[in-house]
């Protein structure tokens, strides 16, 4: 029996890639949902799967619970960000209609707070998962895979940098701009300290070269110190391939920090369009690194760098993949936890990489000298 999957935000940068991986799979009966039926129709035509259904749905409009109940999903994948200003109405509507729920949220408070629905989810026998994306899902899968190499893990530093020609959506841009220049809590030297979004900029080594990255406010900053006891420092950075865009964003962050700009995120559509003036520059190569430092089994210093590179425009498939992995595991009856939780420990790194097989994605692991 096929799993009835409702994909909200299906025509977006990440939603459309999830749709392409689920469509045509006999394990799923897929419904594409969003505010614009025109874009959903075009997506269905590109999928070449006439069995895919369409539904007009606006998660901020009234009557959401009734609309979801009428569609009778067994799994809702929520890819309509940004999540920083959202509440849990979609997850709560899923509980009301007896559906499991997975979202691609990268908002620190949103993902960290999903546990408030844990009691209701367990009572209903449902699974509510937040953060099925690069953060915290894939990042934690990398740390989990390498954790056995350390007797004591002391620091976790990870970063991402998309290729400049990679498609970008307003939701992603708004999510980044929302914390630029704003204070963020940072676990450093074994205690909470203050940093600022997009600042503490530094050069980061990726498989394809060095790029500038700055601090980002993501769920990992809140969740990793709890998940990995004894870790004394956790940091996450992101950056833009082109210096003019990265440092232009840094300048805007300073304007926010100085109080000149109050709400940078509301300018996301305009700034996204400006960034697209430069699509002819740079590359379609992006990636992710996770650097771990601590002590090995013999008490000697150990530093590891796991890295991923994505070419041929396949970078957006990285944040889209965790939701695909979870959907497949649910369809196969291979995902037993119930409750409401951040997306950590629900799949392995090997499972994530298997889902990326066939795309222009490479990984490597290096032992770094002190």
TrEMBL record:
List the InterPro entries hit by this protein, alphabetically.
Answer: NAD(P)-bd_dom_sf (IPR036291), Sacchrp_dh_NADP-bd (IPR005097)
Where in this chain does the record put each Saccharopine dehydrogenase NADP binding domain?
A: 5-105
- Gene3D superfamilies assigned: NAD(P)-binding Rossmann-like Domain
Pfam families in alphabetical order: Sacchrp_dh_NADP
Record's superkingdom?
Answer: Bacteria
Q: What name does this protein carry?
A: Saccharopine dehydrogenase-like NADP-dependent oxidoreductase
Q: Which organism is it from?
A: Rhodanobacter soli
């Amino acid at each position: 029996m096929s799993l009835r999957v409702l994909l909200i935000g299906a025509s977006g940068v990440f939603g459309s890639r999830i749709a392409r991986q689920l469509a045509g799979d006999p394990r799923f009966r897929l419904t594409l949902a969003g505010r614009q039926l025109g874009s959903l129709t075009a997506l269905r035509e590109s999928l070449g799967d006439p069995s895919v259904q369409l539904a007009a749905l606006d998660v901020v409009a009234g009557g959401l619970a009734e609309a979801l109940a009428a569609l009778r999903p067994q799994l809702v994948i929520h890819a309509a960000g940004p999540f920083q200003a959202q509440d849990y109405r979609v997850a709560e509507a899923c509980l009301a209609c007896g559906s499991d729920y997975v979202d691609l949220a990268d908002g620190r408070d949103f993902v960290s707070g999903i546990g408030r629905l844990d009691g209701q989810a367990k009572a209903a026998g449902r699974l509510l998962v937040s953060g099925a994306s690069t953060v915290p899902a894939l990042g934690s899968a990398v740390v989990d895979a390498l954790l056995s190499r350390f007797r004591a893990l002391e620091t976790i530093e990870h970063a991402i940098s998309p290729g400049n020609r990679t498609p970008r959506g307003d939701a992603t841009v708004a999510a980044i701009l929302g914390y630029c220049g704003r204070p963020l809590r940072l676990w450093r030297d074994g205690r909470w300290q203050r940093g600022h979004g997009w600042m503490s900029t530094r050069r980061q080594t990726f498989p394809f070269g060095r790029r500038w990255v700055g601090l980002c406010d993501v769920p990992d900053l809140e969740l990793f110190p709890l998940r990995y006891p004894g870790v004394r420092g956790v940091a996450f950075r992101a950056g833009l391939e082109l210096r003019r865009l990265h440092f232009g964003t840094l300048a805007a962050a300073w304007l926010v920090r100085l109080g000149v700009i109050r709400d940078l995120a509301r300018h996301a559509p305009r700034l996204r369009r400006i960034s697209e003036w430069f699509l002819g520059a740079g590359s379609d190569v992006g990636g992710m690194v996770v650097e771990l430092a601590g002590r090995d089994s013999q008490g000697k210093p150990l530093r590891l760098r796991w890295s991923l590179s994505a070419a041929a425009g396949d970078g957006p498939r990285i944040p889209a993949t965790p939701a695909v992995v979870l959907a497949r595991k649910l369809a196969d009856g291979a995902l037993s936890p119930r409750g409401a939780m951040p997306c950590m420990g629900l799949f392995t790194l090997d499972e994530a990489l298997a889902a990326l097989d066939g795309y222009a994605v490479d990984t490597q692991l290096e032992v770094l000298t002190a």
